[in-house]
Amino acid sequence: MRKIRFWVGLFAAAAVGAPAWVQADDVYTIVVKKQEAKAQKRWSLSEWLETKEKIRLMDMWLALHTPSPFEFSLGADYRTGNSPSGSFTGWSGSFAAYASIFGLEAQYEDSAARTFRGLFHLRIFGYSDQATQITLQTGLISRDGARAALAGVRTNIYLARFFGIEGLFRHVFESASGASLGGKRFEAGAFIDFDFVRVTGSYFSEPSSALSGASLGTRLYF
Fold this sequence. Notes:
By secondary structure, the chain is an alpha+beta fold. 26% of the residues lie in helices and 52% in strands. It folds into two domains: 2-65; 70-221, Porin. It is elongated and about 100 Å long.
């Protein structure tokens, strides 16, 4: 190896007209470094295919670990409580669809009265409904033949990885027909997540209509 290095340096030094015994090693070093620099910039089909495969695997990993902007939920609750006309039991169901921070939800309740709500959601904090979040809502409510607009805010706060508390405040504006549809509504409760299944329990109250009670239900996310 030393002989090869000497003769390569000797030939290179002779080519530039320098004393071979002085610059042979130095010229050899320069030649080797130049070749190494060329090798680093050299393009090959095998390297391009290898890089392409790495990029594909990275894209696949990101797709699996990046939350989708679309989210859907389907829920059902059992409700019991007291109203001016006496105690009651019933149920409610809901379906919601989100695209990023915007969402639409339909709710139907058959308990103290048959009630339908159509809601528009705007999430101002948080990445999904299964995360600590704050969501503003507005929409329409229909009950006993009367309709009115509503607005409110709903929040989830995770206290642990799979456990948290939730709350809701909603105000129903005066109906055009003058009928009372509940005024203010308060809800507070807790939930446990089992992957895509959420089990919830909450207390609700509508002071203006003397309505209060509790609910136990589940919600599926997909």
